[in-house]
């Protein structure tokens, strides 16, 4: 009888050992949202598709935590083919924590366990961990109204809590951040304040004014507000709520590349300190969400493109601007055109080109532009010098 008892105990212990997680088998817990269209196949199919979409986004989030965001840019297609399409293979378990239908869309939120070790191993195998690619230069202006500071005077004299948090979070992801203090010294304040208030026309004008002046590829505009919601159960602690909404806008087209919003609450004896803490937390959440959206959209835009530099000499400012506009609208394969500066008849343009630089230069050489003829005077693999 005793021997049988010990046998049962041994089998139980062996079972526990077998079921225990393997040492070093790391898993990341990720919450992700998915969406699918409700079609003729019905709600069941839409729900399954939405869960699959959420699982893919959970894996994308895990990839983003393992590598700098810029590595996702040039390798977007590779990641899509080798990692994202195999999302179910990285998700060890998941549960649906919320789901609802809105019109013809079915939304789900899942909490997934993603195998970090497997993701990291496959990223290393396909060479993505060592890949590098520049992310856009970003200008950040987030109008902040914290507790006790609901006017704009204090905001314009310092970098606000939310701006500082968002810039730090984006910088950690590999984004290039333009000096916000310099932006505030030169920006058109009435336009900026209108943009903070939700005026989309003002938002586009603000982005358009900052792009050429500071070489910004994207302008992040938003608003952050902290409010005291009152005491907690009659105690001396105050419940402080913060809401942050940010949008990433392209200066050249006004296109919105991403939108993020976040809410945070803090309990604090001092409402002003609680407000700053809540704004910081909400800003960090919004920055993480926005960074993922920007990286994904940027990668989709420039997949299969090459960054080339066109140096322009002998052009007055009017002809330089005309060339920039013509490149953006008249030439196939030109995805983006960014002005990197102009002075004394010389300028520099960076172009995202899908196709051959030789073909583009062949089209440009000899073209008439405002009474001048474009001449290609020099070229390398990814750059050229144009004379007007």
Structure description:
The structure is a single chain. The protein has 388 residues and is α+β, with helices and mostly antiparallel strands. It has helices at 2-19, 43-66, 71-74, 76-82, 116-125, 153-157, 161-172, 180-186, 189-196, 200-214, 271-302, 317-330, 357-364; strands spanning 27-37, 91-102, 105-115, 137-145, 176-177, 218-231, 238-249, 256-268, 306-313, 334-343, 346-353, 368-369, 372-373, 375-379, 383-387. A hairpin with a 2-residue loop joins strand 2 (91-102) and strand 3 (105-115). The longest helix is centred in the last third of the chain and has 32 residues, at 271-302.
Which characteristics define this entry?
15 strands, Rossmann fold, 388 residues, Dodecin subunit-like, Alpha-Beta Plaits, single chain, disordered N terminus
